[in-house]
Amino acid sequence: MSMNLSLGIDYFYKGDFEKALFYFALALQEDQDSVAARVGAILSDMATQRRHEAEALFEYFMLTKDSENGDIVEEIVDLADASIESIFEKIDSKELEHAMNEENGIEYVDFIKLVAQRGSFKKAFEDIMFSTKVLISNKDDFVDFLEQLIDSGFTEMSINYLESAISMYPNDTKLISLVEKAIKF
Fold first, then answer.
1. In which band, very low, low, confident or very high, does the pLDDT at 94 lie, cut at 50, 70 and 90?
2. What are phi and psi for residue 48, nearest 5 degrees?
3. How does pLDDT run across 17-39, given as a tens digit for each residue?
């Protein structure tokens, strides 16, 4: 991996997308065929307008770039001119929709309504925790759910979820702070 590509990745994880774009562009000058540099540059540019979505795609790219499913990376690059929603639909929607339809669960937005009706997260979660799954389809809702679990005293459960989340998003500062919060409880 070139030094410029490595710096681009580092700056992307730090949230400095302008510097990330600069280093990915330098990496592309070194190797015009570098898929990692192309994807990094495209997602750095996207991150200036749609940060969370670009970060999620970048994480997905980093996880799959060396796997047998690496052809999806090329698909991401090909779809770069499309809207961010189209990219997510291509990657997630069918799998997510299928999983949610087969699960016995409540979508997070509906669970939040239940929380409002019960007056507290803890009461609402205790009402459903053994019979119903909470279906979460985006990272922000997942982070909110984990924070609510910790604040409501479900620390062991939150730590189990956080272990998985940290492996997917190792540099996510919010998740790291939640781990620290859960450990203090």
1. very low
2. -70, -20
3. 999 999 998 998 899 888 888 88
- CA separation for the pair 8, 21 (Å, rounded): 7
In one-letter notation, the amino acid at residue 181 is K
Compute the average pLDDT of residues 106-126.
Answer: 89
The DSSP call for residue 119 is S
CA 123 vs CA 2, 148, 155, 156: distances in Å:
52, 12, 15, 17
Q: How far is CA 178 from CA 26, 125, 147, in A?
A: 35, 19, 7
Quick check: pTM over 0.90?
Answer: no
CB 90 within 8 A of CB 79: yes
List the chain domain ranges.
Answer: 3-92, 103-184
